């Protein structure tokens, strides 16, 4: 390659990169300005935005445990001294609310967000008063009942509940991992920025819903936004890199840089707090002896339908066949008259659409939207893809469902803060015995 | 805005123990990736082995300083074997996924509440460095190095850190010039060619993984010394990616590159951070808060990583012909 065209190409690449980040920077603050004010979901303090909370020096904190087990995803609110803030307990049950001044606050635990079967201990104060005593931290303890399980304590019912939840989780993982797998199959790229495409869907939906759009419209627009981000990524970054002949490992490291940059651009505008999408708290539905939340069930149906549709498209349409041909052998596909670049562009767009949908469902499943929610499941997505066989679409589906079910069922025996460990461990063990994955082919292992 | 102060702070980063730790861990990555072509995305896991192996053996088992260091190194070797056995026969990207997963598993395990008595869970551990500071030969007092004045404790940490970095650099240089090192480079260039010469590629890769991991583990111990504390949140995937940025900045198949990369990395971060904070406090920049300025560093690192990889993959010191990928 001569030095002049090379320079031109490099400049174009740089310009495309700059434009991509400029677009991110320009679009995000506008949506945030409109976001929190109108949002029914964001119940953080009216004055400071979600990001500002981190600036406060004082904090009220505690750890929520039930019979020695941490209780995650419970909403806790603090009001007083003209301030109100709320937080959600982390995977370890710990929670912290940063407050502007030392003083007296009313701290309330939202009992409707307690997981099923867990209740406050009889006689526990809620809300309770917390006063700072010249320290920068004040603790608040909410005693929970001695594992008072309201219903369904036997192992069979527990197992059935976890299986359904796990299937729902696995299918939402599959939405993201099928996209990742398609991208890997057609371009060879292990995309570490896929988690950020997941986050983007949920964050876009949060901002759009905050602008007062109805839920279905916000979700649809967010998914389209995800598709657009996939399209732009390919047009502005990955296609020029492929044309330059960049190596796969180099592109993998570029995707890591992209993931870091995009994750913190999102944090810059979204803040570090966890926010809720509208309708994040849904009623429980009883199916015989098993009770499951409505959102989990809806998520299960939506992802199953979408994946079924995708399977149909891949197997029955010309475009689907072309995609599989490119995944199989790009050079041969190109020689047979398939427009490889066009197919890859479509694969990136579809990958973006699916990841955004997965992100929205993940936000309802957790529940909560945060800037690093995609990063949290990125490795589970990888685990699903590797388990099924890198580059195989249906393998990614099977692998993700196994990972989802394994994660949920393992919580019966494992601590909740260790539930991802089991899934990552089985991935490593499977690599030991069947490195090509469940549906993979031997020659890809190399 | 006090430019002199900001500049001094940035210069101080050049000799800070954190820079030394980053340089050492990145040197480990150079052994893995730059020389052998092993894609290790779990260097944070090796650092966690060092930090926790050292801290837990000191606190829980009351081990003396040298025993604690030895325990940390043994942990790291075991970790390297656990990673290497399933993946070293597979293609490079499998190792990448497995190492990043293993590092995260390590982080989840030290964060879990079940092990709070041993690992301190999310709060981490502290107060385990007395053994190290008891070895301090410098008498109490302040030492003026021209651009920065240090207490005797700070001086001791820095002297140890940089002596260790220098020692490791010399060792890696000698290793890579030896016949053993030439085999590693051969594996990087063409695994099958080396195998056809009758070399046991798997064993060489495993040895490289262990040696690079040990460098990461020593870096993990160094990283905890100035803070006297270890917190699990520090050992996330971001740490690994920062180390990769240092490695790529300096040059991946060089000995001094990773160290130089770590110095540039921290000086640039400190300078931009100081200037941004100064500008925000004096009201020149009003559209972002100091918290948001803190997030800008991650965005900068991310973009720098992309640009480096696209436009100058060989880094500052590297040679383009010695890249582990094409």
UniProtKB/TrEMBL annotation, chain B:
Species the sequence originates in: Arthrobacter mobilis
Protein name, UniProt field: Branched-chain amino acid ABC transporter permease
One matching Pfam family: BPD_transp_2
GO terms assigned for molecular function: branched-chain amino acid transmembrane transporter activity
GO cellular component labels: plasma membrane
Keyword Cell membrane: yes
Domain of life: Bacteria
Membrane topology designation: Multi-pass membrane protein
Entry keywords, A to Z: Cell membrane, Membrane, Transmembrane, Transmembrane helix
Transmembrane segments: 6-31, 65-85, 155-176, 208-227, 239-257, 264-289, 295-311
Coiled coil segments of this chain: none
Localization per Swiss-Prot or TrEMBL: Cell membrane
InterPro entries: ABC_transp_permease, LivM-like
């Amino acid at each position: 390659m001569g030095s002049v065209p090379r320079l031109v190409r490099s400049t174009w690449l740089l310009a495309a990169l700059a434009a991509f980040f400029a677009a991110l920077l320009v679009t995000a603050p506008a949506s945030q300005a409109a976001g929190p004010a109108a949002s029914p979901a964001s119940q953080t303090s009216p004055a400071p935005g979600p990001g500002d909370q981190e600036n406060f020096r004082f904090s009220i904190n505690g750890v929520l445990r039930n019979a020695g087990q941490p209780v995650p995803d419970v909403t806790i609110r603090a009001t007083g001294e003209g301030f109100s803030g709320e937080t959600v307990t982390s995977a370890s049950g710990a929670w912290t609310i940063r407050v502007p001044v030392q003083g007296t606050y009313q701290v309330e635990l939202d009992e409707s967000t307690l997981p099923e079967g867990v209740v406050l201990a009889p006689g526990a104060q809620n809300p309770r008063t917390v006063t700072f005593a010249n320290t920068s931290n004040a603790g608040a303890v909410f005693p929970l009942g001695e594992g008072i399980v309201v219903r369904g304590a036997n192992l069979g019912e527990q197992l059935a509940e976890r299986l359904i939840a796990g299937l729902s989780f696995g299918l939402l993982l599959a939405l993201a991992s099928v996209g990742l797998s398609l991208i890997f199959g057609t371009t060879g790229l292990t995309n570490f920025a896929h988690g950020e495409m997941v986050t983007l869907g949920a964050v876009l939906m949060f901002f759009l819903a905050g602008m007062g759009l109805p839920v279905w419209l916000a979700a649809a627009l967010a998914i389209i936004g995800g598709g657009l981000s996939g399209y732009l990524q390919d047009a502005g970054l990955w296609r020029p890199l492929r044309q330059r002949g960049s190596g796969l490992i180099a592109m993998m490291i570029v995707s890591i840089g992209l993931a870091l940059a995009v994750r913190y651009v999102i944090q810059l505008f979204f803040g570090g707090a966890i926010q809720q999408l509208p309708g994040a708290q849904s009623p429980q539905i009883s199916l015989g002896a098993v009770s499951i939340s409505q959102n989990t069930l809806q998520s299960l149906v939506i992802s199953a339908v979408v994946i079924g549709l995708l399977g149909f498209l891949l197997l029955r349409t010309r475009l689907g066949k072309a995609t599989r041909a490119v995944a199989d052998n790009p050079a041969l596909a190109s020689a047979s008259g398939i427009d490889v670049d066009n197919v890859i562009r479509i694969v990136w767009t579809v990958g973006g659409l699916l990841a955004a949908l997965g992100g929205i469902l993940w936000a309802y499943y957790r529940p909560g939207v945060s800037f690093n929610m995609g990063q949290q499941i990125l490795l589970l997505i990888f685990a699903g893809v590797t388990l099924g066989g890198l580059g195989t679409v249906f393998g990614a589906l099977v692998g993700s469902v196994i990972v989802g079910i394994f994660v949920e069922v393992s919580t019966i025996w494992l601590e909740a803060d260790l539930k991802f460990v089991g899934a990552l461990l089985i991935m490593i063990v499977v690599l030991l015995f069947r490195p090509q994955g469940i549906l993979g082919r031997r020659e890809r292992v190399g | 805005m006090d430019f002199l102060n900001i500049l001094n702070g940035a210069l101080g980063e050049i000799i800070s123990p954190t820079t030394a730790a980053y340089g050492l861990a990145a040197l480990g990555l150079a052994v893995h990736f730059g020389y052998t072509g092993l894609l290790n995305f779990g260097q944070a896991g090796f650092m966690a082995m060092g930090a926790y192996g050292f801290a837990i053996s000191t606190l829980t088992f009351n081990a003396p300083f040298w025993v604690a260091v030895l325990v940390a190194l043994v942990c790291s070797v075991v970790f390297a074997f656990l990673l290497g056995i399933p993946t070293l026969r597979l293609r490079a990207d499998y190792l990448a996924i497995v190492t990043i997963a293993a590092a995260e598993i390590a982080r989840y395990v030290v964060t879990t509440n079940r092990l709070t008595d041993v690992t301190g869970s999310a709060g981490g551990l502290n107060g385990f460095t007395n053994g190290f500071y008891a070895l301090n030969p410098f008498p109490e007092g302040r030492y003026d190095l021209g651009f920065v004045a240090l207490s005797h404790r700070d001086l001791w940490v820095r002297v140890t850190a940089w002596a260790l970095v220098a020692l490791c650099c010399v060792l890696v240089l000698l290793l890579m010039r030896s016949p053993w090192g030439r085999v590693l480079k051969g594996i990087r260039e063409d695994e099958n060619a080396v195998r056809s010469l009758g070399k046991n590629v798997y064993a060489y890769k495993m040895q490289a993984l262990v040696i690079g991991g040990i460098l990461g583990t020593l870096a993990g111990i160094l990283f905890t010394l100035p803070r006297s504390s270890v917190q699990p949140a520090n050992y996330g995937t971001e740490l690994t990616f920062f180390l990769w940025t240092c490695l790529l900045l300096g040059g991946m198949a060089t000995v001094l590159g990773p160290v130089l990369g770590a110095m540039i990395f921290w000086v640039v971060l400190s300078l931009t951070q100081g200037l941004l904070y100064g500008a925000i406090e004096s009201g020149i920049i009003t559209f972002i808060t100091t918290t948001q300025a803190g997030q800008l560093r991650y965005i900068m690192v991310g973009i720098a990583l992309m640009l480096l990889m696209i436009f100058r993959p060989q880094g500052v010191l590297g040679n383009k012909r010695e890249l582990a990928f094409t």
